[in-house]
């Protein structure tokens, strides 16, 4: 059976997973459209178009390409600062989606998928935690039936809990029951939990007349697809739009690739990052054509797809078809859906992101804990866009701090072997008499070269009877001109003090650069191993007398 023919085989698991995800996509679409300040139909059409197009170009079997919470928040921040009325801003939203799609495609063509390495996993974990808390907090007013405003997360929370006497008890009861049911149904992945809760919510609304008790309903959702057109906006509006489009693309891809890669690694599958860039671009362009919202592989829908047992990319097709059928055939019923139930579905989908164990694990490892914590606090304190930029800055700062302050190991021979190890970690390793062997723990570059050589000189000059220094460069596959200048200055300084410098484990590119830079006797002074370097020093008459 060919790959093409096997793709069309309908698996029952994919059908069930698609229906389950469709039940989640509907309330998320309504909620995320509300976050962005756009009509619900724009998010629904975006989810349908994004899923269908991604099924053609993408390769992740779990990815559900639809509006995401983070992209909705950034789009809301974008529309808040661009000038114009509601009509112009609605048109600019479509332009932003199209620009995002084009940037994705260009990045895929130019093979820029490596930029994901600059957004570390601790940053994504912290960002996901902060974002989940933010979204859940913004869903609580819908659940309790009280409108709330706040300039930041603290004032928003204070306003919410300060209005506790105004909470609608019926709305609160409906939301809590729906949330409890969703959390219980999560234990049965084979059942479309979100869909069942939505049906139950509609039934309860019809039987008990919830609207008469002050519970807000979704109301009718009109699907009015139109061909997109450029809004009548000035240059200022377009320039501000472009400024926010790049962060939109970054966070969409960071969230999408993080979801895709995490799920692929869990099942031993391989994805090509640049192909996924192109697939996300095509999905966003398709969303723009139906005047939708930015789309990506949100972690709530992606993990819901996995939990429901998705087997192939057919799941995303069934999810799109299921969402379209829900709106087309059950429009009047969807209008009866209580908004607290929608809020409960979104909250339940994000509960997994509230798990602090991945961040606490970083604390136990003494690695990147404060980076992840800073990312979470940044999102909560500064908002989604500024929080994301702060998180990336923290990640880069942590990397630069590690590279600029590397550990320099003093090596010794392990027993009678040819192996040389860090003497501070191996008590049975012995230093070579008259020879100091040093190994920088990071690659040499302009930010750490002077620090490394200063530490080596400081540790070597005070040692009595020292005849030679061996510098192991195994961590440096290539070095920049500043590091090369520092290496040559170190070499000359050691020669003035009467110490020979021998280089070990020198990569070919570094060896060639040393020769071009004018390092004397490059061929004879560069050894393939530390043991060879020791032998070269001893053969040159530097072995001390007993």
Describe this structure in words.
The structure is a single chain. This protein is α/β, with parallel strands linked by helices and 546 residues long. 63% of the residues lie in helices and 6% in strands. It has helices at 3-7, 12-36, 40-57, 69-81, 86-109, 121-144, 153-162, 169-185, 193-208, 235-266, 273-289, 299-307, 314-329, 331-334, 339-350, 357-365, 369-382, 384-404, 449-461, 481-496, 508-517, 522-525, 530-542; strands at residues 65-66, 296-297, 408-414, 420-422, 429-430, 435-440, 468-472, 500-504, 526-527. Strand 6 (435-440), helix 19 and strand 7 (468-472) form a beta-alpha-beta unit. Helix 4 (69-81) runs antiparallel to helix 10 and helix 17 packs antiparallel against helix 18. The longest helix is centred in the middle third of the chain and has 32 residues, at 235-266. The model is unreliable at 1-8 and 542-546 (pLDDT under 50).
Q: TL;DR?
A:
The chain has 546 residues and is of the alpha/beta class.
SSE layout:
Elements: H1 3-7, H2 12-36, H3 40-57, E1 65-66, H4 69-81, H5 86-109, H6 121-144, H7 153-162, H8 169-185, H9 193-208, H10 235-266, H11 273-289, E2 296-297, H12 299-307, H13 314-329, H14 331-334, H15 339-350, H16 357-365, H17 369-382, H18 384-404, E3 408-414, E4 420-422, E5 429-430, E6 435-440, H19 449-461, E7 468-472, H20 481-496, E8 500-504, H21 508-517, H22 522-525, E9 526-527, H23 530-542
Parallel strand pairs: 6-7, 7-8, 8-9
Antiparallel strand pairs: 1-2, 3-4, 3-5, 3-6
Helical content stands at 55-70%
Largest β sheet strand count, sense and barrel closure: 7 strands, mixed
Q: Could you tell me the number of beta strands?
A: 9
Distance between the termini: 75 Å
Q: Would you identify the regions where 5 or more consecutive residues have pLDDT less than 50?
A: 1-8, 542-546
**Mean pLDDT value:** 86
Number of helices: 23
What is the beta-strand fraction? Answer: 5-15%
The dominant shape is: elongated
Radius of gyration: 30 Å
Structural class: alpha/beta
């Amino acid at each position: 059976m060919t790959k093409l023919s096997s793709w069309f085989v309908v698996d029952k698991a994919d059908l069930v997973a698609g229906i389950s995800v469709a039940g989640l996509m509907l309330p998320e679409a309504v909620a995320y459209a509300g976050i962005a300040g756009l009509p619900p139909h724009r998010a629904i059409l975006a989810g349908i178009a994004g899923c269908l197009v991604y099924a053609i170009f993408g390769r992740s079997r779990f990815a559900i390409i639809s509006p995401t919470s983070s992209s909705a928040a950034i789009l809301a921040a974008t529309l808040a600062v661009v000038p114009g009325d509601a009509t112009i801003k609605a048109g600019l939203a479509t332009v932003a989606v199209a620009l995002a799609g084009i940037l994705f495609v260009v990045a895929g063509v130019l093979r820029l998928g490596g930029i994901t390495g600059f957004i570390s996993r601790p940053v994504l974990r912290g960002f996901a935690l902060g974002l989940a808390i933010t979204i859940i907090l913004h869903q609580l007013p819908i659940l309790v039936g009280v409108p709330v405003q706040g300039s930041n997360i603290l004032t928003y929370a204070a306003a919410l809990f300060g209005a506790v006497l105004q909470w609608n008890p019926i709305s609160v009861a409906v939301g809590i029951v729906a949330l409890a049911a969703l959390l219980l149904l999560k234990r049965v992945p084979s059942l479309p939990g979100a869909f069942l809760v939505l049906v139950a919510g509609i039934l309860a609304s019809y039987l008990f007349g919830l609207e008469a008790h002050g519970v807000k309903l979704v109301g009718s959702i009109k699907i009015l697809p139109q061909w997109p057109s450029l809004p009548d906006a000035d240059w200022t509006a377009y320039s501000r739009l472009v400024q926010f489009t790049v962060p939109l693309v970054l966070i969409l891809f960071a969230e999408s690739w993080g979801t895709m890669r995490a799920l692929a690694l869990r099942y031993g599958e391989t994805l090509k990052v640049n192909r996924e860039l192109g697939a996300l671009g095509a999905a966003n362009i398709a969303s723009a054509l139906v005047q939708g919202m930015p789309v990506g592989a949100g972690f709530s829908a992606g993990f819901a797809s996995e939990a429901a047992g998705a087997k192939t990319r057919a799941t995303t097709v069934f999810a799109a078809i299921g969402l379209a059928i829900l709106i087309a055939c059950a429009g009047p019923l969807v209008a009866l859906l209580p908004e607290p139930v929608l809020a409960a579905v979104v909250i339940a989908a994000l509960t997994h992101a509230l798990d602090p164990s991945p961040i606490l694990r970083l604390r136990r490892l003494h690695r990147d804990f404060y980076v992840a914590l800073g990312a979470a606090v940044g999102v909560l304190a500064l908002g989604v866009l500024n929080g994301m930029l702060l998180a990336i800055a923290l990640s880069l700062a942590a990397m630069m701090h590690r590279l600029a302050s590397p550990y320099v190991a003093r090596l010794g021979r392990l027993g009678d072997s040819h192996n040389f190890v860090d003497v501070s970690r191996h008590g049975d390793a012995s230093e070579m008499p008259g020879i100091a062997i040093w190994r920088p723990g990071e690659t040499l570059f302009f930010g750490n070269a002077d620090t490394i050589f200063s530490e080596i000189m400081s540790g070597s000059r005070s040692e009595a009877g020292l005849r030679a220094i061996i510098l192991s460069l195994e961590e440096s596959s290539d070095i920049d001109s500043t590091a090369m200048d520092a290496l040559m200055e170190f070499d000359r300084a050691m020669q003035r003090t009467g110490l020979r410098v021998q280089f070990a484990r020198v990569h070919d590119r570094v060896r060639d650069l040393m020769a071009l830079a004018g390092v004397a006797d490059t061929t004879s002074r560069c050894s393939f191993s530390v043991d060879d370097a020791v032998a070269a020093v001893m053969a040159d008459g530097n072995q001390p007398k007993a």
